[in-house]
Amino acid sequence: MIFDILGKTFLLSNSVFNRIRSTTLLTKFKSVGEGSRVEWPSKISGGQYITLGKNVYIAWNGWLFGNDHYGDQHFTPEILIDDGAYIGNACHIVACNRVTVGKGVLIADRCYLSDNLHDYRDVDCSIRENQLLVPGEVKIGDNSWIGENVCIYGAVTVGKHCVVGANSVLTKSIPDYSVAVGVPARVVKRYDFVGQRWCKTDGDGTFIQEPLTEEKL
């Protein structure tokens, strides 16, 4: 009986303590919209470059990193996470330029989003000593879904209402209302608004399953 009471007391106190620590994490950001929450433990680096919209949820063990320097390189990073976005456990988002996560985006567990990558071409020094390459921005369009273990890096735009399948590596932009899978990820479906259905495509996004047209309806 006493152990049961002690156990429940410990769980309650631990829950309250974690809630306090989660609230403290919100003070690290540039700005935070109403109703947003970041679970503890999470790592926030360069929080002055990170903006959360309203009702954003960031799960446990993630790392958000606004990286303003690497060696002798200097950057002006920005991470923007818009209203209603959900970011799963153990996700890593790093920006040297800009990473934008749109409204209502769902990012599953263990995803990696980065607008930069390590150069490796100078073989006279280690890859760690090479400079960072920052080719552009990462943008995730509104209401898109990024599956588990997805890596997105470089200058990449994911259109709105897109799906990137689990375990994919996306290094090229994909259009609105499309589904991409694979390593490297390729578009396999797009939505046909005339026929109101999802149609198969080749890797370049060209319809294989011919979409309906107004003349055919």
From TrEMBL:
Cellular-component GO terms for this entry: carboxysome
GO molecular function annotations of the record: structural constituent of carboxysome shell
Top-level taxonomic group: Bacteria
Pfam families, per the entry: Hexapep (PF00132)
Protein name listed in UniProt: Acetyltransferase
Organism whose genome encodes this protein: Phormidium tenue NIES-30
Lineage: Bacteria, Bacillati, Cyanobacteriota, Cyanophyceae, Oscillatoriophycideae
